[in-house]
Design brief:
Shape: globular
Number of helices: 19
Number of strands: 22
Length: 563
């Protein structure tokens, strides 16, 4: 095994990969890449990071790649780009100019370029499927949504195919669907796919989860949108109630806030609803409590529990997007403000699928990771995965970075906050209110001092310094970034569409409970995604059919003929 890169070179590679992800909102894991030119040490560091994040390096020069990382000179890059651009129609190639000191790609060498989305240039003279990204400059701050929606749509082949089946089957005609999710380009594409498949779609989003430009784009497309990034808490409630007043037949929720609001304030609507689908772990917990009490008035499909959601969205999508968002914010802080450095100590609270993903990405980026997990089985899992395991209040004492991945309120409570060293950075990858006990901290006399964009130092009485909390303890990839990568949400939204089909076909028969997703939805989603990645698997291996007129033989034959 080659030695790990030195921290400075790995920090450069980390910044380059994060800039690629910010510009494209695409996934690193599962993609095939090639590196062209550059200092061998830089190439080795980038190769180490990309493979640690789950990408695959092409073995042969003729192999089709998704990403071409250019580190050397334009003279080296130009022929490599032209060779890689020879590809099947629809197979996207991202050419990344990752020149460390000077540009590695001559953008003028391929004819006129055109903006595809902020930070991404299309190269129509080469192919409709080739795009350029430069890691040496920040993406333009362009709120225009149309280009971002087109970009998301082209990268969501699985959801497109499922929506086309719904459209062709005519199942959605006359159905009103309420979408209550983080309102950004990928959710907008889901809403438009539902509309194009025949549904009437109404949309709600919380203020801190609303991209106003995207909301306006949906309104221009004819959808009814109840969302504003400037809405106060009472105004958000009125917007959510206004969405419910349209009497949706199906709700697609993220956090189950609107599902629960319907039960609290509009129970009269429940008898007319086919049901709902819930996207998150934290959203399913209260719904299961309602169901156990006999108070859940509609079937709710547990989209979160689908294997093609949890294994990918929670682990790879949330892992990449939350860690990258945190480090992007840390890069904006003044030197000496914080403790975070490449090779430093990181603590992950919780080792469910989200915690696994966060720990994996932090490790790939060179952090020494300690896991704090109260479930002994999961804690044992973390130990087997190679992480140090310790109680949270002990683990944070020497931490540079702390990320909560539990989805449980008060995970980082007052005792944990007090134990954090001055300059430690805290963020949430879980996604419930008060996962960091901010209200308790304020009640305890904490002073909040701005130290940078979306960053506040929490200073306890009698102290001069304290830890830095990012973005008010909000779910960091949503409140400070563009959410999970497009390919990940393509899988999750394909499962949402599968849940819609379940409710349309069997909603009247389903129990008023949290209902597992049909395993066939996972199978169809995974096979479609494999095809989009250019991979195929064989047919399932089924046990031989037993003759219908004969009872199954349940006896053991291990010790001879049981007769």
């Amino acid at each position: 095994m080659p030695p790990a890169p030195d921290p400075a070179t790995l920090a450069w590679a980390s910044a380059a990969v994060r800039r690629f992800a910010t510009a494209t909102n695409l996934l690193v894991a599962a993609r095939r890449f090639r590196i062209v030119g550059g200092d061998p040490r830089d190439a080795a560091a980038l190769r180490h990071l990309l493979t640690a994040l789950g990408a695959h390096e092409a073995e042969q020069p003729s192999d089709l790649v998704d990403q071409l990382w250019c580190l050397g000179t334009p003279d080296e890059s130009t022929p490599a780009v032209e060779q890689a651009a020879d590809r099947p129609r629809g197979a996207t190639l991202i050419v990344i100019d990752a020149g460390r000191h000077l540009p590695a790609v001559d953008e003028d060498a391929f004819g006129p370029v055109a903006p595809a989305r902020p930070g991404v240039l299309a190269v129509p003279m080469l192919s409709d499927d080739v795009f350029l990204v430069s890691t040496g400059r920040d993406p333009e701050d362009d709120p225009a949504a149309d280009a971002r929606l087109r970009w998301a749509r082209r990268s969501m082949p699985v959801a497109r195919s499922v929506a086309a089946e719904l459209r062709d089957g005519g199942l959605l005609r006359g159905t009103r669907i309420g979408v209550a999710m983080f309102l950004e380009p990928k959710t907008a594409v889901l809403s438009l796919l539902l509309r194009d498949a025949g549904a009437e779609v109404v949309v709600y989003a919380h203020a801190d989860e609303t991209d106003d430009a995207v909301a306006d784009a949906l309104r221009s497309a004819g959808l009814t949108v109840f969302a504003s990034s400037t809405a106060t808490l009472p105004e958000q409630k009125q917007l959510a109630l206004a969405m419910l007043a349209t009497a949706p037949h199906i709700l697609l929720d993220d956090g189950s806030h609107v599902i629960r609001l319907a039960h609290q304030e509009r129970p009269d609507l429940l008898p007319t609803m086919l049901g709902a689908a819930e996207e998150t772990t934290s959203g399913l917990r209260p719904l299961r409590v309602l169901a156990a009490r006999g108070e859940l008035g509609i079937p709710v499909i547990a989209v979160n529990d689908a294997r093609t959601k949890t294994f990918f969205d929670n682990r790879y999508g949330t892992g990449q997007s939350t860690v990258f968002a945190v480090l992007d914010l840390v890069d904006g802080l003044a030197s000496g403000t914080h403790r975070v450095v490449s090779g430093g100590a990181a603590v992950v609270a919780g080792f469910g699928h989200v915690g696994e993903g966060v720990a994996l990405v932090l490790t790939a980026l060179g952090f020494r990771v300690t896991v704090a997990e109260t479930d002994p089985v999961r804690a044992l899992q973390a130990r087997f995965a190679g992480y140090t395991v310790a109680p949270l209040v002990e683990a944070v004492r020497d931490a540079d970075l702390v990320m909560s991945a539990t989805g449980v309120p008060d995970t980082i409570d007052l005792d944990v906050l007090r134990a954090c060293p001055d300059g430690a950075v805290l963020a949430v990858a879980g996604g419930v209110d008060q996962e960091i006990a901010i209200d308790d901290a304020i009640a305890a006399g904490v002073r909040r001092r701005d130290v940078g964009p979306k960053a506040e130092r929490f200073v306890f009485p009698g102290a001069d310094g304290g830890p830095i909390v990012l973005d008010d303890g909000g779910c960091i990839n949503i409140t400070a970034a563009e959410g999970n990568p497009v390919e990940i949400m393509d899988l999750s939204f394909a499962v949402q569409l599968g849940a819609v089909r379940m409710l349309l076909e069997r909603g009247d028969e389903l129990e008023r409970a949290v209902v597992p997703i049909d395993p066939a939805v996972d199978d169809v989603t995974a096979r479609a995604a494999l095809a989009a990645f250019g991979t195929h698997v064989g047919p399932p291996i089924l046990p031989p059919e037993h003759p219908a007129d004969r009872e199954p033989d349940v006896r053991t034959h291990r010790f001879g003929d049981p007769a």
